[in-house]
Amino acid sequence: MKERESFASRLGFVLISAGCAIGLGNVWRFPYIVGQYGGAAFVLIYLLFLVALGLPIMTMEFSVGRASRSSIATSFHQLEPEGSKWHIFSWFGMAGNYLLMMFYTTISGWMVIYFVKMATGEFQGLDADGVANVFVNMTSHQPGLMLFYMLLVVAFCMGVCAMGLQNGVEKVTKVMMVCLLIIVVVLAVRAVTLPGAVKGLEFYLMPNFHNLMYDAEGNFRLGEAIFAAMGQSFFTLSLGVGSMAIFGSYIGKERRLLGEALNVGILDTFVALVIGLTIFPAAFAFGVNPGEGPSLVFITLPNIFNAMPGGRLWGSLFFVFMMFAAFSTVIAVFQNIISFAMDKWNWSLKKSVLVNWIAISVLSLPCLLGFNVWSHIQPLGEGSMILDLEDFILSNNILPLGSLIYLLFCVSKRGWGWDNFMEEANTGEGVRFPKALRFYMTWILPFVVLAIFVVGYMQKFAPAS
After folding, report:
1. What residues make up the domain containing 18?
2. Cα–Cα–Cα angle for 29, 34, 37, nearest 5°?
3. Is the pLDDT of residue 257 over 80?
4. Measuring CA to CA, how many Å separate 408 from each of 247, 292, 336, 393?
5. What is the pTM of this model?
6. Which residue in 86, 123, 308, 457 has a CA-CA distance of 20 to 30 Å to 299?
7. Burial level of 77, CB count in 10 A (0-12/13-18/19+)?
């Protein structure tokens, strides 16, 4: 049997796992939902659910990966009881990885495009409508431009994976993550020193539970806010599709896995919280609503940078940060995809990279063309796009159900079982996974995850009021 590659260092494992989790979900989505739901009080609830939901399931994914020494391709085969069918999920989990890349590569290309636009001064002199038109023009009228940068992202990230785990994925991700952390701190320091930034800091750091419970029109929304915090804490860690299990398969038995999950969770949360220290002070300093939704990054922030002294530099740094956040996730997921074929069919690294390079480049086209050439295709109703369908299948279906599968696999006697999970998770030194959580993990957490799945459907298809 071919010896499995391993990380050169524990730091490499932590940074790469965190790089997978630190993506556009928590540096793009996190700030605007915090803005929508009233600031600091929402952040507190988010952190509570991150500990209660995300960390236990991440520990389970790490455990399945390390015990099997395999990706999702064969990990269930190796650990499941004879005659059981847990391994069927491996195909759905891998489909989730491909679905994520089918739209993530296009959005990652946008980050590169916006870095180029910001660095070359394209936004200078534009008013708010002019900045908005840049984004509209790019997505609606420049499919060739988006195609070029999407293919560039795929080529670069596949090239990194082609160099191997230690020489490619680990080395490059380490550099990107260190740069990402430095840039986000520099941006935060600049933002909090802007005139008028204090109001933004108060909004972000001082809990106001009235803002959490009621929207601007006075409508009660506490339940909606709690579910949003629950969903964000659950999805930010990229759980349910084996993205964490694959990195668990590369690490040794020296450290207990709850401590490793804590390290990854802390790093992921640190970046999300610090990017908030960049966006909220800057938004309040220039009188901008920070809860403006997905347009925050591509329309709202360029307007802020336009108004800020030295904004061209700070805007360029921000989009370098966004590029690194996007690339670290793409490289991590590509590694999972490449390893699937290598573990499942004994493909060579070269063959798996080449086949998946072509496959993902082609599979990314529907999302990209859905903004322009195929904009008439509205799969989820009027105003929807192909991206919305891909994201819905992944975020509302595969991620929650995949996390539920991992959870049940580790607590059920018909799966791998609690005792096996505990033995693997607590092998080595570090923070021990508490035995006292067995009841919570077996009888409460599965229903919470199922509730996320059900409520997600209810919100998605609720009739418009």
Report:
1. 10-459
2. 125
3. yes
4. 21, 38, 22, 21
5. 0.93
6. 457
7. middle
